[in-house]
Amino acid sequence: MDNVKLLGDRILVRPDPPEETTKSGIILAPGKEKRIYTGEVLAVGNGRYIVDGLGYRRQEIQVAVGDKIMFPRFTGVNMDRIAEATLILSQSDVLCKIEGEA
Fold first, then answer.
1. Backbone dihedral region of 47: left (phi > 0), alpha (psi from -120 to 50 degrees) or beta?
2. pTM to 2 decimal places
């Protein structure tokens, strides 16, 4: 990922593979995937500049490389040209950061 420089509040994510079976062993039909996805952050931008009453300031990215995040199903840009199965998301597309394993 050294050749990729993300701009603004962009985040490069490797989505986790979709689950094909439930925890109890039931096989899921194609197209019945969940609507919320998880993935690992591979790279982050520097943050975007916002204007407030004090002028311009940089809004920091709230996730770091290696963090596990959740994001909606139909979001981001597919970037298979950079690395296999990667997405570029905006920070506003991230729903939450997962702290521990469930």
1. left
2. 0.78
Three-state SS string over the chain comes to CCCCCCCCCEEEEEECCCCCECCCCCECCCCCCCCEEEEEEEEECCCEEEEECCEEEEECCCCCCCCEEEEECCCCEECCCCCCCCEEEEHHHCCEEECCCC
Residue 53 lies in a domain: yes
The CATH number of residue 61's host domain is 2.30.33.40
Per-residue pLDDT tens for 51-69? 888 888 888 899 999 999 9
Range of the domain at 82: 10-17+27-97
pLDDT tens string 42-55:
999 998 888 888 88
